[in-house]
Write a structure and sequence with these properties.
heterodimer, A: Lipocalin, eight-stranded antiparallel β-barrel, about 5% helix, B: Rossmann fold, six-stranded parallel β-sheet, 5 helices, globular
Chain lengths: ~180, ~190
């Protein structure tokens, strides 16, 4: 017996990320491990109109980057990395969202350091629930990969072997607690 | 517009200081070029001393960089790298964390050496160090090799071929500073 995937419409409404529980993170291979950081604050909105047309948009700022090593803070803001002075905004805007069951695929445009590049995010979406305070919520988890050098974040340092210490591919992930407004 | 010149060489008849003086003549007339001459007085970086108030020489170094719209550094090369005293000064200027005076500061690097290669390794390392400290390092390199033959006894640049690449670096630095000025004003 074959199973048939059921496509489900996205829930109508304007859904805004709850800052207390939502996260946007990045991870990049560095030497022998994974260097991780996050953006806080950020804003994200999923807008689904009556016709089912949906758009996910989000934005943050280079100075919202949080990493464990505070020595890195100025370097990450600087022209070597995000160049906060010239490119004060980081943004994402979806072009196409498809849902298949709880599987979500979003194709959109990510702008970092003034350069916009297409990116595909894949993940899941939960069904709406009503939280203990009477608000409707959905959960969205997304993961995608970008080549940081395409956005002009080209810093690196060679290891003694000649290999670069920092990978070009960066995994971006988002866990969004979206509240209906 | 104000540009601060920093020579990585301390000695009186430094080729790098002479190179900066030659560069100074190539800036547009409305640019005020100041040569920083207190490098020798900057104490060794010690986090225990990196407090408020900072050591006086450090305060003056940071103030000089903060007051400048751009910096032009000329470096010699010692053992294939940046002279310690220059690196030390940059280490001071790279603090405090998060808001160092070098953050977003347009910076250009040139260099002179008595050897054939014109301090190219030191220049490359200095660009890396400045970028890590947060500066906006502009493109362009002027490598003055065999430096004693390039200047006359009074310190004037003899090699006319050097003036053009030097002028290009000066132009890039001024353009970067002008762009920043507009951005900050906007």
């Amino acid at each position: 017996m074959s199973t048939v995937e059921t496509r489900i419409a996205l829930p109508t409404g304007i859904w805004t990320a709850d800052a207390a529980h939502s996260r946007v993170e990045f991870a990049v291979e560095y030497m022998v491990g994974t260097f991780r950081g996050s953006f806080s604050p950020f804003q994200a909105t999923l807008d689904v109109d009556e016709t089912g047309e949906a758009k996910l948009s989000g934005s943050t700022w280079p100075n919202a980057v949080k990493v464990q090593d505070e020595n890195l803070e100025a370097h990450l803001q600087s022209p070597d990395f995000f160049d906060a002075e010239r490119a004060p905004e980081i943004s994402f805007e979806s072009a196409d969202i498809t849902r298949d069951g709880d599987i979500l695929k979003i194709v959109g445009e990510l702008t970092i350091k003034g350069t916009a590049k297409p990116v595909t995010l894949a993940g899941t979406i939960s069904d709406p629930i009503t939280d203990p305070y009477g608000q409707e919520r959905i959960g969205v988890k997304l993961v995608g990969e970008v080549d940081r050098t395409e956005f002009g974040l080209t810093w690196n340092a060679p290891l003694p072997t000649g290999k670069p210490a920092l990978a070009d591919d960066v995994t971006i992930s988002a866990e969004l607690y979206l509240v209906k407004g | 517009m104000r540009v601060l010149g920093i020579s990585g060489s301390l000695r009186r008849n430094s080729h790098n200081t002479r190179l900066l003086r030659a560069a100074a003549e190539l800036f547009p007339a409305d640019v005020e070029f100041e040569l920083y001459d207190e490098l020798k007085s900057v104490p060794p970086y010690d986090e225990d001393d990196d407090v408020t108030p900072a050591p006086e020489a450090v305060d003056r170094l940071r103030a000089a960089i903060a007051a400048a719209d751009a910096i032009l550094i000329s470096t010699p090369e010692y053992n294939g790298s940046v002279p310690g005293q220059l690196k030390n000064a940059i280490d001071w200027a790279s603090r405090p964390r998060g808001t160092p005076v070098l953050l977003n500061k347009p910076a250009a690097v040139v260099g002179a050496s008595t050897g054939a290669f014109g301090a190219v390794w030191a220049q490359a390392e200095l660009r890396k160090v400045l970028a890590a400290a947060g500066a906006r390092v502009v493109e362009g390199e002027v490598a003055v090799g065999h430096a004693p033959t390039r200047f006359d006894e009074t310190g004037e640049l003899l090699d006319e071929n050097l003036r053009e690449p030097l002028a290009e670096v000066v132009e890039s630095l001024v353009a970067s500073a002008a762009e920043r000025e507009q951005l900050v004003a906007a």
